[in-house]
Every structure is written in C-alpha cells, then in structure tokens.
Amino acid sequence: MSCRQKGKYYMTIEEAIRSRHTVRNYDGRALEGETEKTLRSMMAAINEKTGLHFQFINGVTDALSPYTIRYGRWTGVTNYIALVGKDVPELDELCGYYGEQLVLWAQQNGLKTGWVETLLQDAAKGVPVPEIKKGERLVLSICIGYSEKSGFAHKIKTVEEMSVVADPAHVPAWFRKGMEYAVLAPTAGNQQLFKIHLDGDRLWIDTVPGFLEKVDVGIAKYHFELGSGVPHSRWA
C-alpha cells in the first residue's frame, strides 16, 4: 500500500506500475534540488554498472517543439533522459531495462514520463546535443517532468495471451505475479509483441520483429523480475 511519512506521500512499486501511463503535456518546469540530484545519481550508478552512457538534459524550453513526433503532440517538455550506449546487439534491451527503472522511480516521486523516439540531437534547432561518442548510438529518450495530467491506460493483452507455460495445470505463483506486472509494461505503439515462456526451470522471453521491440523486451523483463522476484541472471 501507499503510505505517508512526515507529510510525504510514498507510492509502492506496484502502484507505480499500475498507475504509470505516458504523458505528453508538461508544465515546463525544470527538475531541481534533491529530485534532480537523485536522478543524476541513479543514472551515474547505472552508467558505472553497465557501461551505458545515459544523459540528463535539463531546463530546455519546449525541447520537442522543433520535431515532428510519430505519436501525438508533445508540449512543455523541458527535461529528458537520452538513452545512449555502445552500439552492440544488446543495447536496445539494456536501454529498456534500465530506462524503465528511472521511469518507475519518477512515477513514485510525483513525476510524469513518456518514452519518445525522436533523436533529440540537432543543435541547429536550439536543442542541447547529448554526447554520442564514436561507436555509440542514441536509442530513444524519456521525457520527464511535472504535469497535472496522468495519461490514460490502453487495452492490454491477458497473462494467458502473453505467456507460454509447458504445464498450464501447475503455474507457479511467482510466475503469475511476474506476468501480471509484465503485461503492464509499456511497449512501443502498444504492440505487446513479446511472450514469456516457462518450461520446468527454464525461463525465457521472445518477440517478433516490430518497432523498438528489443526495448520492449528489456522493459518487460524488468517488470517481470519486480513481480516474480526472479533475478536477471535467471533468464535463458
């Protein structure tokens, strides 16, 4: 359950997963103080652990205004996280897995977020350029900030539609809880192209080709692990 401590509201990770939806309209405030400090600290820890090159761009007025975005109109975007890393086959999945950690932290702390595909890197259009070193790639970005809006839920598939279990008569409780979180994972265009498999002790996830489907796999894995308690090393 959520709780209050010294007048502050705390949201559980399950509440964050269930309540978080994409928000495209922000009030234009930059992140400041402890909020900004904590976010930068989390990103630094992720970068040190993984070798990724996540970057926080803060206080840019209408950062998305020069761009045409595939899904809907974005307004008041002032802050975003550029998901950058070495251009290796697993980069997209890593960006989804660790990017979603930042997204859920934001939801727990009263911030709104939205995954956005646009390449926010055109200095000629007045937008600060994330550092992209030789051999690196910008996968996508996460808008983050304040908004009175909460976004809205999309229709999602069922646990049964998103999972393949070798023995349907004996589905472990941990697997079902993991799937309950996984089906709530945001996916590009609400595609939900992945399936999570369980066969005895073997656990794996697969997907079919689609738009940013490997990013979606990373997000889904993180959700599943939060619900099931299964460590990342368990995946086949």
Topology:
Elements: E1 3-5, E2 8-10, H1 13-19, H2 33-50, E3 55-57, E4 80-86, H3 91-108, E5 112-116, E6 136-145, H4 159-162, E7 163-165, H5 173-182, E8 195-199, E9 202-206, H6 213-228
Parallel strand pairs: 7-8
Antiparallel strand pairs: 1-2, 3-4, 4-6, 5-6, 8-9
Helix pairs in contact: 1-3, 3-6, 5-6
Structure in a nutshell:
This protein has 236 residues and is an alpha+beta fold. It has six helices and nine strands.
What does this 3D model show about the protein?
This protein is of the alpha+beta class and 236 residues long. It has 2 domains: 3-145, NADH Oxidase; 159-234, NADH Oxidase, CATH 3.40.109.30. The protein is built from 6 helices and 9 strands, in the order E-E-H-H-E-E-H-E-E-H-E-H-E-E-H. The protein has helices spanning 13-19, 33-50, 91-108, 159-162, 173-182, 213-228, and strands at residues 3-5, 8-10, 55-57, 80-86, 112-116, 136-145, 163-165, 195-199, 202-206. The strands form 3 sheets. The protein has a 4-stranded antiparallel beta sheet. The protein has a 3-stranded mixed beta sheet with strand order 7-8-9. A hairpin with a 2-residue loop joins strand 1 (3-5) and strand 2. Helix 1 (13-19) packs across helix 3 (91-108), helix 3 (91-108) packs across helix 6 (213-228) and helix 5 (173-182) crosses helix 6 (213-228).
